[in-house]
Specification:
The chain is α/β, with parallel strands linked by helices. The chain folds into 3 domains: 51 residues, Urease, subunit C, domain 1, CATH 2.30.40.10; 69 residues, no CATH class; 135 residues, TIM Barrel (Alpha-Beta Barrel). 36% of the residues lie in helices and 25% in strands. The chain contains 8 helices and 11 strands. The strands form 3 sheets. The chain has a 4-stranded mixed β-sheet, with no helix packed on it. It is globular and about 70 Å long. The chain starts with a strand and ends with a helix. The model has no long low-confidence stretch (mean pLDDT 95).
Length: 258
Amino acid sequence: MKILLHNLVISGKADERRPAQLLVEGERIDAVLGPNEGVTSDERIDLGGALVLPGAIDGHVHFDDPGFTQREDFGTGTRAAAAGGVTMVVDMPCTSLPPVTSAANLAGKLGIIAPKAHVDFMLWGGVSSNVLQNSDWRGQLEELIDAGVGAIKVYLLSGMETFRDLKPEQIFEVLKITAQRGIPVGVHAEDRRIVEAAKSTVLARGGDSPLDYAASRPAEGEIAAARTLRDLCRQTGARIHVVHIASYEALDIVTTAR
């Protein structure tokens, strides 16, 4: 079925805006046409002069499904994404029960979330220290990659008992596998020793304000972690994505290394 979207504006170079028509077939834009070009279609939709932009991709969402659906599920999360112009999401592995740390867990999650999805999606897989208790964790990771996850998530500092953090030497072992498989690894980058020391200092003085919380997660922890990940990346040749950086200094380490 061909649908013609007309009476719309698209963006061009710099601040350029130009009238256009879009011919859509299935889930693809088949043609970008001038405003007066004639074309045969099964349906015509007048967009009233709206500015039409490409759908966005959000590569880092936590939709909590299954396990924490009192907060959000895949249906409400992807519905909100669609309303905001996001047409693809990549869901994190750690905030669902069970976490996406095995091919079996991935299959179980897919069976629950796929019928609820309102936009395209991909899933992260993960490796936690919970997983490393299994002597065949390497084989489990290989199976998870074969099952189709888009990337692997690990933590240098985690607050989740169901998805505990890894030590740098453990991440090194994960990176050796992902480097061979050509799959990126996303890392929550905070140095555990620095953060735990700062947290102890804050708690010792009875701090319980938002500013005290910020003081318990100092930039130094992120900076040290960024250096660690830079070195691990150089040693293994793996692709690392440092997630949600909050300090300029850590960002500078990452961009300079890249």
